[in-house]
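Re-run requested by the PI after the first attempt was lost when the workstation crashed. Everything re-entered from the original request form. Ligand of interest: adenosine-5'-triphosphate.
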Amino acid sequence: AVVLAAYLVKREALELREELGSGQFGCVRLALLRSKSHCSRYVAAKALRENAAPTEESEFLREACTIASLDHEHVVRLIGVCISDGPPLVLMELAFFGDLLGYLRARRHLAEGADCAGRESFASYEEAAHVSSEALTRLAREAAAALAYLSSRGVVHRDVRAANCLVDARRSLKLADFGMARETVAGADGAPEYACRRRGMFPVLWMAPESLAHGVFSGATDVWALGVLVLELVTLGARPYGSMSPLRVLEYVAAGGCPPLPLDATPQTCGLARLCWQREAERRPSAAEVHAYLAARPLALSAALRN
Ligand code: ATP
């Protein structure tokens, strides 16, 4: 709450516009924030839904506190909070292209059309649709940079995936959704807390074997998820593990499996995925090492886009 004191915004300064999306806490709306000292600006206003429990309200504001404590070009910024005269609102920088998963899938529809027209047009499409090797690699490096920063701050995100990243007007990635994030204090992590927050919903498809088996989260489990995010990038938002049910994925990963890669994935993509998905957490690269890996070995779009 002390952290948020510097961010308080009066409700009258806000003009709420259309809905941008919705999540477990409630909906996110476009809003115009009027300010005396600065020009007015558009922001994303996240509202807590009406019937939220008090524990959900504190979780909601806790996420705002976490974002307020972070300062990185690839981590979404907190603009303000409204806590008087009504349900709380958290104001965040607006990401013009919305979440990364929606962004990738919108491009996938275009790619499928271009693919039907033949490989030649598919190649030119990659440039036009901003899914060239450079564009995909840049997004992956930005996610890695955000995670390297979190790691330097002793924060574990615990829910890294394309749906939890945003894309701004410059097509730059912003890591968001810090509802699950925790400081790496011994004993602070725990599956029951996680289960409670998600009402039993685990992001199983992005979880490392040790998270699935023992509820352990660390920088290394964020790197496993980063590997799955890379898979989402090169397949333009395909569901990891295809149509396998979460329960089946749990068994499959427990038995030593990891997400299947597209048959045409490049050696660079396969190499990075294998590093991120090593069974032993200590053997996985750090986020900073993934960032460096990508500088030398760019990703490429998989043409096998269908699940
Ligand atoms: P949760 O895991 O909390 O359910 P979520 O990502 O599904 O998370 P929200 O964070 O509430 O839900 O966001 C819902 C949707 O609103 C996002 O998927 C995205 O499309 C859109 N959105 C959220 N924040 C922004 C933002 N800062 N700029 C633009 N769009 C946003």
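Saved to the shared folder this time. The pocket of adenosine-5'-triphosphate is lined by residues 20-25, 28, 44, 46, 76, 92, 94-95, 98-99, 102, 163-164, 166, 176-177, 179 (CB under 6 Å).
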